Amino acid sequence: MAIEAPISKFKKDNFRISIGICLAVAIVFAYDGYLSKYEWSKRYSFYKEQVLDNDGKPTPTMVFNQKSPPFFVGAAVLLWVYLLSIKSRKLIADDNELVFNDSDRIPYDSIEKVDRTYFDKKGFFVFTYKDKSGKEIDRKLSDRTYDNLGAVLDHIVAKIT
Predict the structure, then answer these.
(1) SS3 sequence, the chain?
(2) How far apart are CA 122 and CA 116, in angstroms?
(3) Staple partner for 62: which of 1, 20, 58, 136, CB 3.0–4.6 Å?
(4) With contact defined as beta carbons under 8 Å apart, do 140 and 122 qualify?
(5) Of 23, 21, 47, nearest to 35 (Cα)?
(6) Domains of the chain: which residue ranges?
(7) Residue 42's pLDDT is what?
């Protein structure tokens, strides 16, 4: 029986919040950079201070407000694409190994120890395993990265003991 641990809601929500912040900042800077020059604008005083009182030459702040919005929108798009790419990732604890993805598999017989000291308090555990070359590697799994990690931990402990 395989136990699945999908990418956590915490991680997905953080990406959504970051996308929202990037878009909000892009809107605010675009408004200040492009729409503040009109007298009906609520930010006309900003335009007056940054351009008109400076002999018609925009200050570095105004130039930043005019040039940065496309970069913030681009960052939001990149974050959204990355969110879509990791949305379906999951950790699978099957009968023989832990499967992170097609190329990253850890057999249970290579796992030497599991340190779950901080799992109840801080939500992570560390396990030590030997890779194919015989080198010991510590790997940390956190509940901020994967949901259903408690069941995966119990399954790992049951398989290695």
Answers:
(1) CCEEEEECHHHHHHHHHHHHHHHHHHHHHHHHHHHCCCCCCCCHHHHHHHCHHHCCCCCHHHHHHHHCHHHHHHHHHHHHHHHHHHCCCEEEECCCEEECCCCCEEEHHHEEEEECCCHHHHCEEEEEEECCCCCEEEEEEECCCECCHHHHHHHHHHHHC
(2) 10
(3) 58
(4) no
(5) 47
(6) 7-86, 92-160
(7) 82
Rounded to whole angstroms, how far apart are CA atoms 7 and 44? 46
How is domain 92-160 classified at the architecture level of CATH?
Beta Barrel (2.40)
Within 10 Å of residue 118's Cβ, how many Cβ atoms?
13
Question: Does residue 1 register a pLDDT over 80?
Answer: no
pLDDT higher than threshold 80 for residue 92: yes
